[in-house]
Amino acid sequence: MLGQSRVVLLKPLVKSELIEVGDFSYYDDPDDPTAFETRNVLYHYGPEKLVIGKYCALGTGVRFIMNGANHRMDGPSTFPFPSMGGSWSEHFDLLTGLPNRGDTVVGNDVWFGYGSTVMPGVRIGHGAIIAAGSVVTSDVPDYGIVGGNPARPIRTRHDEETVARLLAVAWWDWPVEHITEHIRTIMSGSVDDLEKAASALPRR
């Protein structure tokens, strides 16, 4: 980002076919924000995906723990002997079929606070806020605010009716030119204003 070397748009940087990032989602890190794919997405061997929507803001140290971090818990030991190689690798079948919660999916317009961690298979709704230092172990609703370890609901940003209206407007899917024209409405206007802007969308 111009004048802010610690802030990068993620979409152009991601190379893995197992990671999808939407337009304008960014990561902020004073050390090496360009290394997000390797430093912040951990134990990602597939087949599950990490999907991050558009216009998401990721603070320094946000981490996504993927299913590859799982260990067996049904026997006397959780140690992954076969992964050490040698003759132990003959027992690699013991590492297959581990619990897998599927893809980790983040909606659009989600704000992640400093040092927050998302566990495997979690789904985070549109417009959610993840407080700094949170460990997200379960799904977060649209426009929900969660915090803590494990993260618990703090409140919702809007009532149910307003959330439904915001989801119907889905401003993040507007053409960039229309978003640009209505920045002030998106950032500080009312839902009525947002709906009026949506009604002015060019017909396709």
Please characterize this protein's 3D structure.
With 204 residues, the protein is an alpha/beta fold. It has 2 domains: 1-75 and 99-157, UDP N-Acetylglucosamine Acyltransferase, domain 1, CATH 2.160.10; 159-204, no CATH class. It is built from 5 helices and 15 strands. The protein has helices spanning 36-39, 160-169, 176-181, 183-188, 191-199; strands spanning 7-9, 19-21, 26-28, 41-42, 50-52, 57-58, 63-65, 104-106, 111-112, 117-118, 123-124, 129-130, 135-136, 144-148, 151-156. The strands form 3 sheets. The protein has a 7-stranded mixed sheet with strand order 1-3-6-9-12-14-15, with no helix packed on it. A 4-stranded parallel sheet has the order 2-5-8-11, with no helix packed on it. The radius of gyration is 20 Å and the shape is elongated. It starts with 6 loop residues before the first strand and ends in a 5-residue tail after the last helix.
